[in-house]
Amino acid sequence: MSRASVEEMIADADAADEAAFVDDLDTPVLKQRFEADNEFIFLDEFLPVETTTRFQARIPELAEAVHRNYIPRHKKGGSVSRYALDELAPEIPALYRNPRFIAWLERMTGETLQVCPESDPHAYALYFYTEPGDHIGWHFDTSYYAGKRYTLLLGVVDESSAQLEFELFKNDENRETVGDARNLRPGAMCLFNGDEVWHRITPLGDNERRISLTFEYVTDTHMSGWQRFVSNMKDSIAYFGFKQVFKRDQR
Ligand SMILES: O=C(O)CCC(=O)C(=O)O
Ligand SMILES: [Fe+2]
User: Fold this and answer.
1) Whether pLDDT at 250 is above 60
2) Staple 210 to which of 160, 172, 179, 197, CB 3.0 to 4.6 Å?
3) What is the ipTM metric for this complex?
């Protein structure tokens, strides 16, 4: 085989890689911003349109797998767990596990990252905000793992006025808190250290719809028995329901 055709084959394989787009990002600059902003970055344009479109095409089927929750004064909305995504939208777990994608996140965070174990229903999930007032109150994405937890949010559908509001440097006594709010439009992303960035989603208005995708990566997949129990209770009550969470925790 000629050298040219080998190079063409490599180029084709690269183009076929769903995460090839990360090579076009100015990672050193983005990493600097991420570090300067308390391990937080928001980008309005991140996922290629084709990828977002592929995810959007799964929404009608996924809508049947939505589990809705209402926790007075904290959260109202729907969620689809990783187990439903494994069955109904395999391109989502494929991106979550894509080695090139993870390598990019490792460059950004400066950490060796692991995907969450099979038993974690929240490793990747979709959030459906579909009824007026759907929201989630101020919180950290606390790590129940032995190490750090990074959250990646990806905008899938956003026909809404609901915003991701965030406060940086919340845990830093020596710095003023910096707050802002953004709409997570289709293709947008937000990457942050869950234990550092205080955030919420403001209530959905009438006739609005917002669907976001979350990926969770950790620096250590170990979780103590007690932390696992707390994490499972939180996922059952606030997100996916007991059936989805505890059925799967037997593995
Ligand atoms: O809907 C989102 O974009 C984020 C929701 C969130 O912060 C959470 O469920 O922890
Ligand atoms: Fe969160």
Assistant:
1) no
2) 160
3) 0.98
